[in-house]
Amino acid sequence: MTTQPMPVKIDDTMDDVLNTFVRTDGYATTGYLVDETDTSRPTVSKRLDRLYAAECIEYVHEPTAFWRLVEDPREDT
Fold first, then answer.
1. Biological process GO annotation list (predicted)?
2. What is the domain-level CATH number for residue 17?
């Protein structure tokens, strides 16, 4: 049995997070995303959790919360 990644709901905040990844060649820290999106850390963290669960991002360096965008879920829609 194969598992499918969960779909990602694209709201304005998720779109801002994804746009930031695109502007930085797919790499960003959680703190940078918070600053660039002018959104709270818990809100950004929830979006990152969703992207991670959907296998759209991966940790590059977990201690610093450095992420890499693997696949933009907006390209599937």
1. regulation of DNA-templated transcription
2. 1.10.10.10
The total domain count for the chain is 1
Amino acid identity, position 56: C
The model's pTM: 0.88
Residue 67 near residue 55 (C-beta atoms within 8 A): no
d(CA 54, CA 44): 15
Which whole-number Å values give the CA distances from 52 to 28, 68, 69, in the listed order?
14, 10, 9
Residue 7 lies in a domain: no
- 28 within a domain of the structure (yes/no): yes
Pairing of strands 27-29, 57-61: unpaired
Range of the domain at 48: 12-76
